[in-house]
Design a protein that fits this description.
Number of strands: 8
Strand order of the largest sheet: 3-2-1-4-5-6-7-8
Bound molecules: NADP nicotinamide-adenine-dinucleotide phosphate
Radius of gyration: 17 Å
Shape: globular
Strand content: 5-15%
């Protein structure tokens, strides 16, 4: 039985950037936001900021590369709220060219490598360090998969769920030969899209939808200052899909609220 009547939305990587804004927008729509992030100090501060705006946001620690964290988060959500309606797999890294810093479990693993990781500015798929690819997949692909495995069964049981995998058009298979050379990121997002398709298939006819959304090129630490779009605009694309009425699309990839090719 649900312990609260509000819909509950779990958002990963939500202490800053697009994820934080998704929490704010879902909160304004009346959702109880579960704001998750790896760093408790930054995460608690972010949740407090939303609470001051009158938005119901509860912080819980989550490094998506850490299975124990995922299990603990699931226990927390079930005990405190008794339900989960929306999952936004937003946590993401672009290790290529050092665009994101390796932290948490992945960061600790990288420190143990015998050779210093070469972040490789402009390297293509034939040069990129396998460790960069492994670390990117660990967060961007397996992080989202762990969350899907933990939370989608609860949604299926409740016969309601909206899962948004925050992907990127850089992961489109028909865009792999474009100029952008961030191969580890591209590969991890293409694999995330594969997770979307397979999970959507396993949820068919259960009122649980699973879609990939590219938020668009956005001014954040990952997107950089030259990006044309604000976090507000980026989050709107994700929230649109997270709040979609029954009977909506599943197993699709969207950008600017329009379906795009894989
Ligand atoms: N910005 C763009 O132009 C753009 C375009 C297309 C797609 N996207 C996608 O949008 C999503 C959000 O990106 P953003 O631009 O908002 O990036 P961002 O500002 O760099 O924020 C990334 C977020 O992910 C969190 N994170 C990193 N590693 C994590 C881990 N192991 N476990 C849990 N959380 C982790 C970070 O936490 P910390 O604060 O602790 O580091 C931070 O909250 C990503 O999936 C990204 O690939 C972004």
């Amino acid at each position: 039985m649900p312990k609260i009547h509000k819909r509950v939305a779990v958002i990963t990587g939500a202490d800053r950037g697009i994820g934080f804004e998704v929490c704010r927008q879902l909160g304004k729509l009346g959702y109880q936001a579960v704001l998750t992030a790896p760093d408790p100090a930054k995460g608690k501060e972010a949740a407090k900021k939303l609470l001051r705006e009158g938005i119901e946001a509860a912080y819980h620690a989550l490094d998506v590369a850490n299975e124990r964290h995922v299990r603990k988060l699931r226990e927390f959500v079930l005990k405190k709220f008794g339900r989960v309606d929306v999952l936004v797999n937003n946590a993401g890294v672009m290790f290529d060219a050092g665009r994101s810093k390796p932290e948490g479990r992945v960061g600790r693993w990288i420190k143990t490598l015998p050779k210093k990781m070469d972040f490789g500015e402009g390297q293509g798929i034939l040069e990129v360090g396998i460790d960069i690819v492994r670390a990117s997949v660990e967060v961007n692909t397996l992080g989202a998969l762990r969350m899907c495995q933990a939370f989608i069964p609860l949604m299926i049981k409740a016969r309601y769920g909206r899962v948004v995998n925050v992907s990127s058009s850089l992961g489109q298979l028909n865009g792999m030969t474009d100029e952008d050379r961030v191969p580890a990121y591209q590969l991890s997002k293409a694999a995330l899209n594969a997770v979307t398709l397979m999970a959507a298939d396993d949820c068919r006819d259960k009122n649980v939808t699973v879609n990939s959304v590219c938020p668009g090129w956005t001014r954040t630490s990952l997107g950089g200052p030259r990006a044309p779009q604000s976090v507000g605009e980026a989050a709107e694309n994700i929230v649109w899909m997270a709040n979609y009425p029954d009977g909506g699309p599943t197993g699709e990839f969207f950008r600017d609220k329009k379906a795009i090719e894989w």
